[in-house]
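In response to the reviewer comment on reproducibility (Comment 2.3), we provide here a single inverse folding case reported in full, input and output, so that an independent group could reproduce the run without further information from us. The structure tokens appear first.
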């Protein structure tokens, strides 16, 4: 049976998953706690990595190398970028990229990608689209941009001009990068905490817990469809 890795950036984002899991063991590795159990009968390992793309990539590599997961889902929260994205919408990444890395770094050097975008897995995307048809939750599919800054309105236009992402965060492309070089299926599920109209760190703090619960609900639903 498939085993899935569920990777969140923060403990607030991981918390809604733990009641859904029949946890059999908790393993500590590289200062992280990996919760092994089941989600809807599907073997799963859940962890929060800490914020930023390097932390996220390290946790993804451990999920793959140590725990032998067959796929990784990066679940949690994000900032809305496109004007059509509203508070508490969920964005599922069809592709992801670094908005703070020069494009030729990844295409001219390792891992010699055909483009700057990390594609999400087709089967996981198909399961997500099937689940989206069964829920009243607003779910959007598109691009997620990743970088090492909390994006406020000052940076919004620059990133939108570059690739018009639906959402922005600090981890998705880092997890996608680790999965890409290992040939492991990847998907990101991010619910929105802040937008151009309701922006800033205060909005994130105010809306994070509810958005994390929504992201977990959507993730569990699509994993059931995938399994």
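Designed residues, in position order:
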């Amino acid at each position: 049976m498939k085993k899935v890795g569920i990777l969140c950036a923060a403990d607030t984002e991981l918390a809604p998953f733990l009641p859904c899991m029949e946890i059999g063991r908790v393993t500590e590795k590289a200062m992280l706690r990996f919760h092994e159990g089941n989600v809807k009968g599907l073997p799963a390992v859940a962890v929060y990595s800490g914020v930023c793309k390097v932390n996220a990539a390290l946790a993804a590599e451990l999920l793959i190398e140590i725990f032998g997961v067959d796929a990784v889902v990066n679940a949690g929260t994000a900032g809305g970028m496109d004007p059509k994205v509203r508070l508490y919408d969920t964005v599922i990444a069809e592709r992801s990229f670094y908005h703070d890395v020069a494009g030729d770094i990844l295409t001219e050097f390792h891992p010699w990608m055909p483009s700057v975008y990390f594609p999400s897995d087709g089967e996981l995307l198909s399961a997500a689209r099937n689940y989206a048809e069964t829920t009243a939750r607003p779910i959007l599919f598109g691009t997620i941009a990743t970088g090492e800054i909390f994006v406020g309105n000052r940076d919004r236009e620059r990133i939108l001009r570059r690739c018009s992402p639906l959402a922005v965060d600090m981890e998705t492309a880092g997890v996608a990068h680790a999965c890409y070089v290992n040939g492991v299926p990847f998907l990101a599920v991010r619910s929105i905490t802040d937008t151009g109209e309701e922006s800033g760190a205060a909005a994130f703090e105010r809306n994070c817990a509810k958005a994390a619960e929504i992201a977990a609900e959507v993730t569990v639903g699509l994993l059931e469809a995938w399994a």
